[in-house]
Design goal:
Elements (H helix, E strand, L loop, with lengths): L20 H4 L12 H17 L5 H25 L6 H24 L9 H12 L1
Length: 135
């Protein structure tokens, strides 16, 4: 996968030449230099969230990941301003922090809702296995 691509792009019926560079995964954001420190951090956040979540199964999940990364990047920027002693609106900081936390919670919920590779055994299966080992 191209390093500038944030997440794998779902296959489309239309050929790549008629889709946008963002849709193809060759650009992270339209009209943005992909080498700035902010964009590199944004890409890192997207990759980390995608790795934590597993491969997104839909475009909606990919958008959720990108939005969560953008909100977290904004919170990190506001935190850096505070650390440098710059004036930051406390209400804006609280709103940004809460929004980022809600976005991350939604992603965690999605991860928890994914079916496990090995299903959890039922109580009956547990009792049957226990009876077999006791005999």
């Amino acid at each position: 996968m191209n390093r500038s691509a944030a997440v794998a792009v779902a296959p489309s019926i239309r050929p790549a030449r008629v889709r946008s560079a963002v849709s193809n995964g060759t650009r992270l954001l339209a009209g943005v230099d992909g080498n700035s420190p902010q964009v590199r951090r944004y890409r890192d956040l997207i990759e980390a969230l995608t790795a934590d979540l597993g491969e997104p199964d839909s475009e909606a999940v990919r958008l959720q990941v990108r939005n969560a990364a953008a909100l977290q990047l904004h919170v990190e920027d506001l935190t850096a301003r505070l650390a440098r002693g710059e004036a930051v609106d406390p209400e804006a900081f609280t709103r940004a922090t809460n929004a980022a936390q809600r976005a991350l919670t939604a992603l965690r919920r999605r991860k928890a809702d994914k079916p496990r590779a090995t299903p959890t055994p039922t109580l009956d299966a547990y009792r049957a296995r226990r009876a077999e080992t006791a005999a």
